[in-house]
Amino acid sequence: MTEATEHFNRIAPDYDSLLPEHVQAHYRRKRARVIASLLRGGRGLDVGCGTGRLMEELRDAGQITGVDGSEGMVAELRRTGRGEAQVAQTHRLPFADGTFDAVWCVAVLHHVADPERVRATLREMARVARPDGAVIVWDHNPRNPYWPWLMRRAPQDTGAERLIPEEEIVAGLRAAGVRVVASYQSGFVPEFVPRRLMGAARALEGLAERTPGLRRFGAHNVVIAVK
To answer: Residue 209 — pLDDT band, cuts 50, 70, 90?
Structure first.
């Protein structure tokens, strides 16, 4: 068992409350809209599903399965009834080739960190996607100066993480044999925004995401590929 896995096992019971719920809900909705539009009612795989909050958000979008390397996180997912998942490493997915209509990982690769395991994770995601299926990677954007500050304070981060550049994700997906159809940045609402200011924060986020230059510094890289 790796140090990262042991860490997530320890924090699993408290994981859902580590960051403000109103901010987490905002980002879940953003991600679910994109994924649901690509899943289109089919069969989906959440790689690094954690406690299953995103799976729960996508419950009506298709038949969703999850995998996570932490037994504690999967146990919490099952306890809360958020779906079906199993314990598995991201770079060794226990599914046959071409099983899923859409495969995604959200805020996972920076925990995988090791360059070879990142590449292996992307290969595995591409492998289990069906022909014409979608592969979606949504992860922290190293261009955004906010992440080093937050990650030193976030209980889910240990210091072993590595922010993965957009170019590395794109290159890894192409090497895995899928066609990258979109790569952009999303998100400007910081985790510490008070609930009463969320309306203003969302409005400013929308403006920033539409502003050339500035949008490159969005919180997350979103890379979408088709097999």
So the answer is: very high
> How many CB atoms are closer than 10 A to CB 47?
30
Under 8 Å between Cβ of 126 and 136: no
* Closest by Cα among 105, 214, 115 to 167: 115
Q: DSSP string spanning 4-39? A: HHHHHHHHGGGGGGSS-HHHHHHHHHHHHHHHHHHH
Q: Is the pLDDT of residue 154 over 90?
A: no
Asked if residue 54 lies in contact with residue 46, where contact means CB atoms within 8 angstroms, the answer is: yes
Q: Which residue has the tokens 């009506």?
A: 60
pTM: 0.96
Span between the terminal Cα atoms of the chain, in Å: 32
Judged against a pLDDT cut of 80, whether residue 3 lies above it is answered with no
Asked if residue 43 lies in contact with residue 66, where contact means CB atoms within 8 angstroms, the answer is: no
**Sole residue written with tokens 């209509």:** 101
* Residue 37, C-beta contacts closer than 8 angstroms, at least 6 positions apart: none
Within 53-165, residue ranges assigned H as helices are 53-57, 71-79, 109-112, 115-128, 146-151
* Domain boundaries 3-226, CATH class: alpha beta
Task: Please check the confidence at residue 137 and state whether its pLDDT lies above 90.
Answer: yes
